[in-house]
Amino acid sequence: MKEETSGKSAVSSEAYEVLNLVNKYRKENGLTALALNENASKAANVRAEEISRSFSHTRPDGRAFYTALDAVGITKGSRGENIASGYKTPADVMSAWMNSSGHRANILSKSYKEIGIGIYKDGAGRLNWVQLFVG
User: pTM for this one?
Assistant: First the structure.
């Protein structure tokens, strides 16, 4: 995974590929594109590291996933999370999410306007993927 070098972005090139695929699927379903939210992406990166240790929508300290969004100042509106582990490419993880009714519902929800995307490679080289949706 390469980090973007322009500005202070914490968004990887793989995360941008996930964003492009999300918006492709949304367009195919007559929905507006989601905007990438840098702060939500910071929270998603935190969550991606956390799910490498405890694969759950509950954070390792027992709090709900959305408290990672609270920590970056996103405290209002609808919020959702997709998590995955072990997929090697953005296309692979997006295929898995789109073939899961709950994950697909988040990706295609009209409630969301923005997305944060995080990816964390653990010590074993396993990729952990997080989408945080904000409405």
Answer: 0.92
